[in-house]
């Protein structure tokens, strides 16, 4: 990432966020923060969502670009203007908006997870990946693993 295309990224995120924010149900009636109250790294703000979900930082945008590139099998994000960058940029913005939407709905509906729940699920997923890659058959819940 980098180069002169950085402003274009911010513009796309702001336009897309404004579009989603306009159709969002009111999750919060609080007055939005003034621009100077936002973190310096903020590239977009989503309105009418709980405060912890309203700011999109440049770090989050860059991370979303890296994830989009990895999903396409790329080892790095191409520079703006290079082949494939526009598609990755669109995918990254869509992922950020989808995440904000899901988090906002979860907060509105009173849903959430604890750190322990996330830790257990991550452990379960990692165990499944290791079993799959090593050719180990899954062990039924509650049954001990028998090793011949």
Describe the structure.
This protein is mainly alpha-helical and 148 residues long. 51% of the residues lie in helices and 5% in strands. It contains 4 helices and 2 strands; from the N terminus they run H-E-E-H-H-H. It has a two-stranded antiparallel sheet with strand order 1-2. Helix 1 runs parallel beside helix 3 and helix 2 (58-71) crosses helix 3. Residues 1-29 have low confidence and may be disordered.
- Based on Cα principal axes, name the global outline: flat
Given as residue ranges, the uncertain stretches (5+ residues, pLDDT < 50) are 1-29
Average pLDDT for all residues: 74
Give Rg in angstroms.
20 Å
Major β-sheet strand ordering: 1-2
User: How widely separated are the two ends?
Assistant: 51 Å
Residues in helix, %: 40-55%
Q: What class do helices, strands and sheet pairing give?
A: mainly alpha
- From N to C, what is the helix and strand string? HEEHHH
Strand content: under 5%
Total number of β-strand segments? 2
Number of helices: 4
Major sheet, described briefly?
A: 2 strands, antiparallel
Short description:
With 148 residues, this protein is mainly alpha-helical. The chain contains 4 helices and 2 strands, in the order H-E-E-H-H-H.
Key traits:
148 residues; 4 helices; flat; mainly alpha; two-stranded antiparallel sheet; disordered N terminus
